[in-house]
Amino acid sequence: MQSASFGASFTFFAYSHALSSVPEGETLQVIELPHGYVLNVPISSLAVTIPKGDMKNNPGTGSKLNPRYFLFQNERRPDISISGWIEPSKKFTSTRKIFEGDTIQWTINGLPDPTEVEFRKIGAWDAVLYNMDIPGGTHSNIRAHWIEESTWIDIHVSALASGKTPRQCRTNLIRLLGQINVENTNVTL
Questions:
Q1: Is the dihedral of CA 127, 35, 82, 57 positive or negative?
Q2: Beta bridge mates, 183
Q3: Strands 137-148 and 151-160: what pairing?
Q4: pTM score, two decimals?
Q5: What's the pLDDT tens digit per position in 83-135?
Q6: Side-chain-side CA neighbours of residue 15 (13 Å)
Q7: With helix as H, strand as E and coil as C, how does the chain read?
Q8: Are 85 and 70 in contact (CB under 8 A)?
Q9: d(C-alpha 142, C-alpha 51), whole Å
């Protein structure tokens, strides 16, 4: 019991410290509008719009130590999610290298190897599509990257292929990724 208390205290301290050490303008802002959620880090000229539909913002879950992390989940089907980060583009290496790092981490954590891996462009997104066979089904995933104006948008779209084939689920995730809009706010008319 004491170790759990220590862990919670340490997590709170680390999170508080991480937020307090973030320079002004580098924390994610989320604005809820009738049609979607607009995400922006003030020092970036890019804004990301996540379509609203049944999606709900879940701040405080996921990677709490990163002040630019976001997570949205479908209210009716919590297995459908859109998560990611908005980071400086200098942190981006390549889609392949990031995926290789992910697979190493999955192996360390005892997760299954990804299947049906496919690297491709989806609109302006540089993406890797893959499935994870888990007890009770297949988890379809797209990890996509958008680099523009010294900003890296890293998005992970995922869902369980419940009631559908993994191929149908992948098609739906591609459609969902296509509905995510990235806009340069510095463009003037």
A1: positive
A2: 47
A3: antiparallel
A4: 0.82
A5: 999 999 999 999 999 999 999 999 999 999 999 999 999 999 999 999 999 88
A6: 14
A7: CHHHHHHHHHHHHHHHHHHHCCCCCCCCEEEECCCEEEEECCCCCEEEEEECCCEEECCCCCCCCCCCEEEEEECCCCCCEEEEEEEEHHHCCCHHHHHHHHHHHHHHCCCCCCEEEEEEEECCEEEEEEEEEECCEEEEEEEEEEEECCEEEEEEEEEECCCCCHHHHHHHHHHHHHCCEEEECCCCC
A8: yes
A9: 17
Total residue length of the chain:
189
Going from the N-terminus, what domains does the chain have, and what CATH number goes with each?
Answer: 25-184 (3.40.1000)
Least confident of 1-10, 62-71, 127-136: 1-10
Match 């340069």 to its residue by tokens: 184
**CA–CA dist 71, 61 (Å, integer):** 7
Residue in 50, 79, 56, 37 with CA at minimum distance from that of residue 169 = 79
6 Cβ contact list (under 8 Å, min separation 6): none
Residue identified by tokens 């790092």 is 101
**Alpha-carbon gap, residue 179 to 85, rounded angstroms:** 17
